[in-house]
Amino acid sequence: MPRLLGVEIPGDKRIEASLPYIYGIGPSTAKRILEQANINPDVRAKDLSNEQLNQIIQAITASKLPIEGDLRRELQSNLKRLQAINCYRGIRHRRSLPVRGQRTSTNARTRKGPRKTVGVQRAKEGAK
């Protein structure tokens, strides 16, 4: 398995499909990086030479895109900033509710978690 910027990418896939395993690189960015590095996108990742891997790394760093740890830190700091200034989106994040205007009366189970049933208690057997 080739290793790019601290991430192991699958060797048996085409390099165009392997690059999106790096957090922050999607399919279109992967195509653009391979064009800049002058590498055929149909080549398998395990068949790349060290020189070609270095060309890919140089193309990624030249693109000035935040990837992996930098991008994760940036996203976390954005969320913390929204929560700190008590804006609507920050409050929704803090309460683990949908942020972008979805309905919550029904649905929203992915964000809210499993149902928490309230007020349904059975009467005790002895109190008839």
TrEMBL record:
<keyword id="KW-0687">Ribonucleoprotein</keyword>
<dbReference type="GO" id="GO:0003735">
    <property type="term" value="F:structural constituent of ribosome"/>
</dbReference>
<keyword id="KW-0689">Ribosomal protein</keyword>
<protein>
    <recommendedName>
        <fullName>Small ribosomal subunit protein uS13</fullName>
    </recommendedName>
</protein>
<dbReference type="GO" id="GO:0005829">
    <property type="term" value="C:cytosol"/>
</dbReference>
<feature type="region of interest" description="Disordered">
    <location>
        <begin position="95"/>
        <end position="128"/>
    </location>
</feature>
<dbReference type="GO" id="GO:0019843">
    <property type="term" value="F:rRNA binding"/>
</dbReference>
<comment type="similarity">
    <text>Belongs to the universal ribosomal protein uS13 family.</text>
</comment>
<keyword id="KW-0820">tRNA-binding</keyword>
<comment type="function">
    <text>Located at the top of the head of the 30S subunit, it contacts several helices of the 16S rRNA. In the 70S ribosome it contacts the 23S rRNA (bridge B1a) and protein L5 of the 50S subunit (bridge B1b), connecting the 2 subunits; these bridges are implicated in subunit movement. Contacts the tRNAs in the A and P-sites.</text>
</comment>
<dbReference type="Pfam" id="PF00416">
    <property type="entry name" value="Ribosomal_S13"/>
</dbReference>
<dbReference type="InterPro" id="IPR019980">
    <property type="entry name" value="Ribosomal_uS13_bac-type"/>
</dbReference>
<dbReference type="InterPro" id="IPR018269">
    <property type="entry name" value="Ribosomal_uS13_CS"/>
</dbReference>
<comment type="subunit">
    <text>Part of the 30S ribosomal subunit. Forms a loose heterodimer with protein S19. Forms two bridges to the 50S subunit in the 70S ribosome.</text>
</comment>
<dbReference type="GO" id="GO:0015935">
    <property type="term" value="C:small ribosomal subunit"/>
</dbReference>
<keyword id="KW-0694">RNA-binding</keyword>
<dbReference type="InterPro" id="IPR010979">
    <property type="entry name" value="Ribosomal_uS13-like_H2TH"/>
</dbReference>
<keyword id="KW-0699">rRNA-binding</keyword>
<dbReference type="InterPro" id="IPR001892">
    <property type="entry name" value="Ribosomal_uS13"/>
</dbReference>
<dbReference type="GO" id="GO:0006412">
    <property type="term" value="P:translation"/>
</dbReference>
<dbReference type="InterPro" id="IPR027437">
    <property type="entry name" value="Rbsml_uS13_C"/>
</dbReference>
<dbReference type="GO" id="GO:0000049">
    <property type="term" value="F:tRNA binding"/>
</dbReference>
